[in-house]
Amino acid sequence: MEFSIKQSNPENQRSACLVFGVFEGGQLSPAAHQLDLATHHQLSDLIARGDVTGKAGNTVMLQTLSGAPAERVLLVGLGKKEEFKEKQFIDAVRTTCVTLHKTICKDAVLYFTDLPVKARDESWKINQIILLSAESIYRADELKSKPADKHSLRKMILGCDKKPGSTAQHALTQACAVAHGMKLAKDLSNLPGNICTPTYLAEQAKKMGEDHKFKVTVLEEKDMEKLGMHSLLSVSRGSRQPAKLITLEYRGADKKQKPVVLVGKGLTFDSGGISLKPGAEMDEMKYDMCGAASVFGTMLAIAEMELKLNVVAVIPSSENMPDGAASKPGDIVKSMAGLTIEILNTDAEGRLILCDALTYAARFEPDTVVDIATLTGACVIALGGVASGLFSNQDQLACELAAAGDYTNDKAWHMPLWDEYQTQLDSNFADMQNIGGRAAGSVTAACFLSRFTKDYRWAHLDIAGTAWKSGKEKGATGRPVPLLTQYLVNRANTEK
Ligand code: BES
Ligand code: MN
Ligand code: ZN
């Protein structure tokens, strides 16, 4: 879809459809009010008649409006004006997209940037409209022999009362970059495990490197062996697919600036290994590489933005399968950091590949390291699909990430990483065990990682609940590309 922003008087605007908001009780948005005045109160008449209620979710499509050149006018209910906040704005945009996609409209002009959302500026509204619209047209039909019917909508114009300034234009291009990053993340995540293998991810990284001038390196199992990554390699032992450690380097700032390193869990299929998972919904474990996919997506977004910041992506990628060579419960392995790990459950494999990747990340002399992983079912129980779990060894970093999530509505909630939880990882035979029991499962997983991140500022995002949706709407969400990109944009702005 093509997006643009321009000054537009609704009474003169040609389009397949103009879209306006109406508050409950019949109060028109400023742009709708302007159109109402220019068309002899036809809109207020509809409100008076009771057709247009302004209740949240209420939509009325007018097939003509005499006196206006547009072919259609869509009125979208916004709910009560005093309750109109982020969520209500987002719901109104979603409703608009659903309604437009049921029509044959090829283009539409949305007059939403003047809607009063408390504490949110025009850039925020532009960002949300673009991300939500891009989301609404996404289809994972690459592998269907007949692709699903495409939407008619090709062009979306954001109509403003004055000429949009450079801030608004900038917000639009930035949002488009994030939308592209989310699409890439979703495309990779939705691919099945038989196509999206560690080797496939490595090939994608190389392609991205050619297109966007990243320096790409792929470590093979023999290289990892030499580095002593026995924890990571213990996970791929049971699989016929060789593990890969992929790095992408984006240098947008001075060489001397220490990079932000993003580490993404790239488990292309998690069967659980010898600690085999139950059969129901096991297919969803193809999504166990969503952390890696979000890192790819974020790298694409910042490259398109030409962000002035140094960012390195580190992606440990493997399958977790049971076979004769697979790790067994009770096995003890030595990590690259030299710490020994008793593997009590082969299904707690994410931390086993991440710990070596986190040790490896230190080579880039990072300013900050953020890992992103579909790490624990316990996080899904704690926070559901609304917020990602956020853990950090530095409160300020946690605050910065949480703020980026709040702004983009890609929320993350700060969880504790207190020492009291660490003892749950005590092992009788090794430096630690890889599970900490049922209690506080997402916290003990983060505690495990924290033992490998002592030398730098670090945060961990557990995206097990937020990276994809189950059920009828099954599919990747592209999260947390918006959070990560926003965090990096904020960083680039403060480094200036
Ligand atoms: N990839 C899973 C985590 C997961 C589970 C993500 C469900 C999304 C939905 C991870 O590798 C795993 O299996 N974790 C175990 C850890 C346990 C054995 C300590 C879990 O959460 O059950
Ligand atoms: Mn697992
Ligand atoms: Zn896993």
Q: What does the model show?
A:
It is a single chain. The chain is built from 14 helices and 20 strands. The strands form four sheets. Strands 7, 8, 9, 10, 11, 14, 15, 16 and 18 form a nine-stranded mixed sheet that branches. A six-stranded mixed sheet has the order 1-6-5-2-4-3, with helices on one face. The radius of gyration is 25 Å and the shape is elongated. It has helices at residues 30-38, 42-49, 86-101, 122-136, 166-190, 198-212, 221-227, 230-236, 290-305, 350-361, 377-383, 395-408, 441-450, 481-495; strands spanning 2-7, 18-22, 59-62, 73-77, 107-110, 155-160, 215-219, 244-251, 260-264, 266-270, 310-320, 331-334, 340-343, 368-373, 388-392, 412-414, 432-433, 457-462, 468-469, 475-476. Manganese (II) ion binds at residues 270, 272, 320, 347, 349.
Describe this protein with a few key phrases.
496 residues; Leucine Aminopeptidase, subunit E, domain 1; 2 domains; Aminopeptidase; binds manganese (II) ion; nine-stranded mixed β-sheet; 20 strands; single chain; binds ligand BES; alpha/beta; binds zinc ion; 14 helices; elongated
List the helices and strands and how they pair.
Blueprint: E1 2-7, E2 18-22, H1 30-38, H2 42-49, E3 59-62, E4 73-77, H3 86-101, E5 107-110, H4 122-136, E6 155-160, H5 166-190, H6 198-212, E7 215-219, H7 221-227, H8 230-236, E8 244-251, E9 260-264, E10 266-270, H9 290-305, E11 310-320, E12 331-334, E13 340-343, H10 350-361, E14 368-373, H11 377-383, E15 388-392, H12 395-408, E16 412-414, E17 432-433, H13 441-450, E18 457-462, E19 468-469, E20 475-476, H14 481-495
Parallel strand pairs: 1-6, 2-4, 2-5, 5-6, 9-11, 9-14, 10-11, 13-17, 14-18, 15-16
Antiparallel strand pairs: 3-4, 7-8, 8-11, 12-13, 15-18, 19-20
Helix pairs in contact: 3-4, 4-5, 5-9, 8-10, 9-14, 10-13, 12-14
The structure holds ligand BES, manganese (II) ion and zinc ion.
